[in-house]
Amino acid sequence: MTGGLEGYDEVAEANAQKSILDIHWSRICARLKAEVGEVEYNTWLRQMGVGPVDEDEITLYLPTRFLRDWVRGQYGDRLGALWHAEIPAIRRVELQVARGPSPAADGDASAAESGAPSAATPPAMPVMDAVVVEEPRTAEVRSDLAAPLDPRFTFDTFVVGKPNEFAYACARRVAERPSSPGFNPLFLYGGVGLGKTHLMHAIGSELVREGRVSVAYMSAEKFMYRFIAAIRSQSTMEFKEQLRSVDVLMIDDLQFLIGKDNTQEEFFHTFNALVDAGRQIVVSADKSPSDLSGLEDRLRTRLGCGMVADIHATTFELRISILEAKATASGVEVPAKVLEFLAHKITSNVRELEGALNRLIAHANLFGRPVTLETTQDVLHDILKANNRRVTIEEIQRKVAEHWNIRLTDMSSARRSTVVARPRQVAMFLSKQLTSRSLPEIGRKFGNRDHTTVIYAVRRVMELMEQDPAFAEDVELLRRMLES
Ligand code: ADP
Ligand code: MG
């Protein structure tokens, strides 16, 4: 990203820095895995590699654009928080597409994904080699269709409340009596992190435990990769037969099939064949069948034919119950006040709530200190901050433009006079500090400027803040206004 490694000593230094980063990185990976679970970790995060640190930003690599976008959306904040916890100077994570040295090929054709270009060339400096964290192969990457079910996701560990009781009841019913009329297909939908995957795994585990039926569970992307891999290896017949031989087929996050016409078509045929043969289908998505625009009409219609159950956003009561259940299971005593505080502060989804509690518990175990409101605020400061109001780049631009009395359009204009260039740089600096947007994204919002321009702006503002206390005060003031 930036230059500066001219001499040999610096190369040696860079290598030393890299091995230190690797140590931090393996710790972070272990934590991530504990937080998100093996299945999710292997699906999304395993192939991530660590890159260079530039000032307060660390670069991480993912092999495809698709994975990069997904990881950025789902785990971007968490990665930032984990890095910050390891190395406080790091405040941002930049995710880039680059292929690290040979991630263990796992035969599920994940490389064949959504037309991602054959990865950007990894940067040339030694410190920038992507490191791929090697993991032992686990069950879910086998090529057969045996369900990679997370043993933690059972009906017993699912906390029921108003927002999810209907979905829960339907899931239980399907687990007890698969393929009963009216419940086939079972379509579960709701926002991210509200328990769809949990319920599907619970259905699967229950059925597998009974040992009478064969269950195939996979995410829609996995379905797609498998299908693409089958086409490549000219084994589509085998793939179809395998799928059509199961008693229960569960496809998670069906919205991923939107725009993937061939895969959708294949799914549609599989779906029909199975339902016609009296087998059970369970599908989850982020929206109801009728709102999944982009799915073929005939598929949408069929998906809506059985039971459609939505999981609503959590209520305060449900969040408390979930926290209580998880705290009890952990064996660490967490005061009611702390649980209430968390349930108030973290409202987005159960995954985040769980992540926060896990961190508290890990912290308590590690240091052998009781959990209190103070330790909570301290240990979770980054999560709590991220759950405060999120500032957008547009807001920053508006406030900064107002402050220096320039036109909002000058934030993206090509004018270079200091009168407008300086406020623009401040706005870029604040965007970097207060949002989780990446440098290129910030650049784009400022009249399609290059990310190097943003880096330059950040540096310049930092220098000026050191040299000029009045300017520093201005910037600080703006920052506080935007943050509150
Ligand atoms: P989704 O698939 O809807 O995005 P998940 O099923 O992956 O969400 O849930 C995210 C996390 O939250 C999982 O660890 C899951 O166990 C937990 N979770 C969600 N809802 C509940 C619940 N009602 N009770 C207990 N844990 C839950
Ligand atoms: Mg899910």
TrEMBL record:
Residues 1-110 are annotated as: Domain I, interacts with DnaA modulators. Residues 392-461 form the Chromosomal replication initiator DnaA C-terminal domain. The keyword ATP-binding applies. Belongs to the DnaA family. Plays an essential role in the initiation and regulation of chromosomal replication. ATP-DnaA binds to the origin of replication (oriC) to initiate formation of the DNA replication initiation complex once per cell cycle. Binds the DnaA box (a 9 base pair repeat at the origin) and separates the double-stranded (ds)DNA. Forms a right-handed helical filament on oriC DNA; dsDNA binds to the exterior of the filament while single-stranded (ss)DNA is stabiized in the filament's interior. Domain I is involved in oligomerization and binding regulators, domain II is flexibile and of varying length in different bacteria, domain III forms the AAA+ region, while domain IV binds dsDNA. This is Chromosomal replication initiator protein DnaA. It comes from Novacetimonas hansenii (Komagataeibacter hansenii). The gene is dnaA.
